[in-house]
Amino acid sequence: MIIPENLKPADGRFGCGPSKVRPVAVAALADVATTFLGTSHRQATVKNEVARLRRGLAQLFSLPEGYEVVIGNGGTTAFWEVATFGLIRDRAQFASFGEFGSKFVSSVKAAPFLGEPSVRKADPGSAPTLVAEAGIDAYCIPQNETSTGVAVPIRRVEGADEGALLLVDATSAAGGLAVDITETDVYYFAPQKCFGSDGGLWIAVMSPAAIARAFEIKESGRYIPAFLDLVTAIEQSRLEQTYNTPALATIFLAAEQTDWMLANGGLEWCAKRTAESAGVLYDWALNSPVAAPYVVEESLRSNVVATIDFDDSVDATAIAKALRANGIVDTEPYRKLGRNQLRIALFPSVEPADVEALTKCIDFVLAGL
Ligand SMILES: *Cc1c(COP(=O)(O)O)cnc(C)c1O
Question: How confident is the model over 52-78, as pLDDT tens digits?
C-alpha cells in the first residue's frame, strides 16, 4: 500500500524512545563535529556543554533553592540501581502500573540490604495512588507509564513519615508534562524521549533532602558499587562532569533541546504543545468507528504517549506495518501489553501538524486494508 506523499507527516518518527531527534539539533551537532566531538570530557569544551545542559534544566524546571541537577551514565535503568543502593534506606513503596514501574520494584526486591517493598498495583491502563504507610522512607512512582500511556499527577504523599522521599520516574514525562518540582525529591529521566537526544545518560533533579539521604547512606558504610555511587555522581556533576566517559553527542543534543524548549517558552509551552498533539489524536480516535483511546479514564490519558485500541475487525499490526513501509515508524504497541493497539509518542519534538497528518495516513490505510 502506498500512502500519497501529500498525506504524509513531514517527519515519520513517532516512537516512544529513542524518539525523534530534531534535524536542526543534529545540524548543530555537525557544526561542532571537529571542535567538540572527540575531545576530552575533562576539558572546558565538554564541561561547558554539561554546564549548559545542567543550567538549562535548572531553568526549565524552575529549580527551588538547594535543588541540583545530577547526571550519570547508564540511562534510567542504571538509575534504578543507583537509587536502590544510594537513596532507599530500608523500605520503599511503589506505584506499579506497567512494565517500567515494575522493573524498579524488581531491583529493590533483589537487594538483600533493603526491607520488603510495599507495592501498590493497578491493572494496565489505570493507575494506583501512593498511600502513607509507617516505615516507608521512599515513595516511587512513574509520572508517565510509557508501556500503557497512563500519566498521573505528581504530589507528595500526605501523612508520610517525616523525611520520606518522593522519587519520580519521569523518563517519558520530563519536558513534556507539567510538574511542580517542589512536590518531588528526585525527578529522574533519560534524554532519549522528550529531550530529543540519544540514550545512555541519566539525569536526576534532586532536592536537598534527597542529596542529604545519599550522603547519609554512603556514610553508613553500605557497600555501593563505584559506578552506581550517587555521592560520586553528585560531586562530579558539581564539577560539570561525569564519573566515567559520557556520550558527548547525547549531552550536546540534550542541551540543544533544552535551549530550544526554553527559547519557545519553557515547560509551559512544551506541555501546551503535547496537549495539542494529544487532543488531535484522541479526538480522532473518539470519532473513528474502529478506534478508541485505550485509557478509559480521561484524566489518566497521557499527553506524551498515546495508546489507541482498535476494533477486532481491524488488525493494528497490519496498520503499523503499512505505515512503516511508508516511512512512518514505531507506532507499534508495547510488545508485552499484547493489545490490538497503536502507541504514538507525542513528545515536544513531534509537530502537532504531523500528528494530524498521521491520523489521515491511518484513515488511508484503514480504507485500504
Ligand atoms: C524509557 C523508559 C525507561 C527506560 O529508560 P532507559 O534509559 O532505556 O533505561 C524507564 N522508565 C520509563 C518511564 C521510560 O519511559
Answer: 999 999 999 999 999 999 999 999 999
Question: What's the angle, vertex CA 272, arms to CA 169 and CA 99, rounded to 5?
Answer: 25
Residue located via cell numbers 536502590: 84
Give the neighbor-by-neighbor strand order of the sheet with 291-293. 291-293, 305-310, 341-345
* CA 147 to centroid of ligand 1, rounded, Å: 10
307 grid coordinates: 495508546
Q: Count CB neighbours of 184 within 10 A.
A: 25
> Is 49 close to ligand 1, i.e. is its CB under 6 Å away?
no
- What is the C-alpha separation between 213 and 220, in angstroms, rounded? 10
Structure pTM? Answer: 0.98
Q: What is the CA(218)–ligand 1 centre distance, in A?
A: 26
Beta bridge partners of 341: 309
In total, the chain counts a number of residues equal to 369
**Any atom of ligand 1 within 6 Å of the Cβ of 266:** no
**Distance (Å, whole) CA 348 – CA 369:** 31
Site to substitute for ligand 1 among 172, 194, 197, 304, most atoms within 8 A of C-beta: 172
Contact between 199 and 251 (Cβ < 8 Å): no
